[in-house]
Amino acid sequence: MAKYARKVKSVDDLIEIRDEFLEETAKYRHTVMVCGGTGCVSSHCADVMNALKKQYTLRGLRDEVRIVETGCIGLCALGPAIVVEPEGVFYCNMTPEKVTQIVDKHLIGGNLIEQYTFFDEKTNSYIPHMKDIPFFRDQIKIALRNCGVIDYDSIEEYISRDGYFAIAKALFDIGRQGVYEELKASGLRGRGGAGFPTGVKWESGYNARDGQKYMVCNADEGDPGAFMDRSVLEGDPHSIIEAMMLGGYTIGANRGYVYVRAEYPIAVERLSEAIETARAFGLLGEHILGSDFDFDIEIRIGAGAFVCGEETALLNSIEGKRGEPRQKPPFPFQKGLFGCPTIINNVETLANIPAIIMKGSAWYASFGSDKSKGTKVFALAGDIRYSGIVEIQMGTPMREIVYTIGGGIKDGKQFKAIQSGGPSGGCLKEEHLDVPVTYEDLSAMGAIMGSGGLIVMDENTCMVDTARYFMDFVKDESCGHCVPCRIGTKRMLEILQKIVAGKGEMEDLEMLEILANTIKDTAMCGLGQTAPNPVLTTMKYFRDEYEAHVLHRTCPAHVCKDMLTYHIDPNKCRGCTLCARNCPVDAISGSVKQPHSIDVEKCIRCGTCISNCKFGAISVQ
Questions:
Q1: How far apart are CA 507 and CA 290, in angstroms?
Q2: How far, in Å, CA of 594 to CA of 413, rounded?
Q3: Angle between the N-to-C axes of helices 265-280 and 228-235, in degrees from 0 to 180, rounded to the nearest 10
Q4: Looking at residue 164, what is its pLDDT?
Q5: Does the pTM exceed 0.90?
Q6: What is the separation, in whole angstroms, between the first and last Cα of the chain?
Q7: How much is the average pLDDT of 599-609?
Q8: Measured at the alpha carbon of residue 532, what is the angle toward residues 504 and 384, in degrees to the nearest 5?
Q9: Whole-number Å distance between alpha carbons of 227 and 42
């Protein structure tokens, strides 16, 4: 929270805070932004911050250098990271020792330390400035406009970047109808996965029966490998508060709820502090900005159930009930939280809205494609060189995301597949990489945009085992409310387990497709209906791998243990006995300085022999 709270009673007060902050910060020679996203926290960014503060004090830089802890800067693979402004120099893989040198040579001496900046393996050169680094260069940041740029804990800095001016514009300029009309004209669609037009949804809330209404933020981000919403909540919590205020004003709600995963403690802490600060400044509560609009927000912590990402299951959970979907209709805008009209948007959707209201629908609609407007935030993860959080213009080819922004496949391996949309998404081949990333194009290929998880897989990935992994996840996370999802996903998992164990038959493949299509057509909620997508797309695009498992009892990627055979090449084996001595089941025999052999019946395929062999004599077939 700010050192002292100033009651903001008018737009003039906002202007005064903005101007004072900009004047105060203009006196500093440098601003050093230390990434405080979860990825960098886990990489000990606190040690980097402490070392920086220590040098800052010892060198008497208090009046010359401003130190800021920000949210996620984006390039998680190279954290901890800091950025020195106004030059925009990106330092990565930071340590306390490196920070001490940066203070001496850069902040005091005026010379950047190139060898601590981003190293581009493709050009074999260092790229010091963020604007020139391929990972950052082609991104267009709207939802992430403040993440990694501002002090997430400073309401004054948020205000200095037009924060809370959008709600002022709505209250005193365009009005309730003007807000939803602007959103309709912008083309913004829900970023939680369904892609429903946001303006139409808010208009439905506006037209719903009078009385108590609610605004709900869905921050229950449960997809493996996804961290888009978490990054926004950690790095720019005030934008979500302001967006919910805009939603509450538009639909006529005086209360909002943020439903966030308990597994996001940093996001919960920062959002809680931001809400308290906004209340202290009078930007939440009664008579906001001197108007007759009242609005407040409460956080509800989810227990980690994947199904609570579905909007009606989320509502049940907020009400203290079992998190399982409700039958629709009625839809939430008709009868939602506590039986009242409710509008639900996910974090990324809300993060776009203040910028749209401030800059206008035409500005936002100028980005993207014909039907998929604006930008989309993705979490790049998996076998990619530069994992992290990115925001790209809709219509950008997947290849650009993987190879230009993500740097391609790590360790020099070949691309095999990419999964878009999390456990409910689909796995696509290299031939799909040149298709534009839009709702329509991904859907046509059998995948979905989803909330924005992108998991890249290299040549060593078994696509059958990948389908098994996601089906195992979906089966465990099924709420059990409907038979197709509860029983169908279990049967599909059993078949996949049978196939990866080397016991599959061709009729199993036929049954998999029948079950997948049945679940897709009959499951109660969107999560159940999309659960078979990983199986359907892998069977469509990687059919040869399924057939190899079934017809030839082999796993081409050498992943499925039950199909592997370990073999010792007698021409390479030196008889050092390391493999035999470390085998946990005594499956290896042989004399000293003589070639050894493996008893395939006793071998449990643990790989210990390979890791111990110094001569490359053991192979997997």
A1: 70
A2: 35
A3: 40
A4: 98
A5: yes
A6: 60
A7: 91
A8: 90
A9: 14
